[in-house]
Amino acid sequence: MKWLFTVFVVCIGELVWAQNSATVYIDQYKDMAIQQMNEHGLPASIVLAVAMHESGNGTSRLARIQHNHFGMKGRSYSAKIRSSYKSYDSVALSYADFSSMLKSRKQFRVLFDRCDRYDYKAWAWGMQKAQYAANKAWASRVVALIKKYKLYQYDDRPVDYVELQDNDNVPRSSRSKHRRIVYYHIKKGDTLSSLAKKYGTTVAKLQSRNHLKTTQLQIGQKIKLACK
What we know:
By secondary structure, this protein is mainly α.
């Protein structure tokens, strides 16, 4: 029985350590994630969650030795380091390079136009579809981190922002049919401007998704809110 108790204590200790390391990481790097959001327009929650996932909350060898928190590939050669992953002089440079990579590569750049700034789920699944990671569970894990640690609180959402509800467990192959189609019925007082602000998008995107030539709406009209 003693060995069972020992195993139990060790498991509990590891869970507590993992929880603490995540909290420490968030406190230390949330401002860097917010800076990337303000400068480039992607959700701070995505930046932070991807960094946490890829670096093991900053504990991986790549993060500790090479300041690489996103698993960014690129050869590094020096007297001390020979690696197929990029090395940075600081963690801040790693964060900046992550955002620059997303904006410079075509398969990721489209996310800035297609996905709403506050829709971290769309970003996570969009990045997986664009093959940011080979693991099919990658997006689910990133979304789970955001929810567990409430990382969306750093996305500067409006007070009245309404998160689009959908099924996180829908298989990736079915998401184009089921996940991103979210509609809204126009109510009295609604305008494209108010809806754009409430749902973290823009008037132009709403017009484009719904093929609207003007900004005039009718009560009861059904419009598409989610990104394609």
